[in-house]
Design goal:
mainly beta; about 210 residues; Glyco_hydro_3_C_sf; 3-stranded antiparallel beta sheet; 3 helices; hydrolase; secreted; 4-stranded antiparallel beta sheet; Cellulose_deg_GH3; signal
Amino acid sequence: MPWIDHPNIKAVVWPGLPGQESGNSLADVLTGKVNPSGRLPYTIAKKASDYNVKIDPSAEVVYKEKLLMGYKWFDAQNITPQFPFGHGLSYTNFTYSDLKLKAKKGHNNKAKVTASVVVKNSGSLDGAEVVQAYLSFPKSAGEPPKLLRGFEKVLIKKGKKTTVKFTLGSTELSIWDTKSSSWVIPSGQFTLHIGASSRDIRQSGSFTL
């Protein structure tokens, strides 16, 4: 996107794969009838060479990137994208506060983590925010820097606030162990990141299992 830095370009409307009503819906967003709340389901790089996956004409493709796909690659290599995974704009603003975490590990590789965060619409218009939860595993697990583990879309009136809750069970807290050929919950310190995109983290908290 060599044109993106032009001073006259203030924002980009990215319709994705629009349907037959795309004209009407885009007009509603552009005129302010609707406050946009969409989020990118992938990462858009500043240049093609930032992506780690290239076109492979081979009949048998080797997935050398392994776990480092999409935003996980950009995070692992500390590459700043043009637009990060989960990014999206709104005509209002949201603030995050008061992250609370509670973790409990039981027997037979079972665990449960509950989290709550207060999100306030601090702008002048009603709007919807997509609150995203990313998990960082203990370093010994060998996982990417952070992994999306949940998201909630909440409509908040201007000046109001709401509490968004997430629950992570054994599935979200596990990794695949090749030695035992099973899912296991690694021991150590985890960090839960709550934000508006993979690169817009507003609150973080740690817990140990």
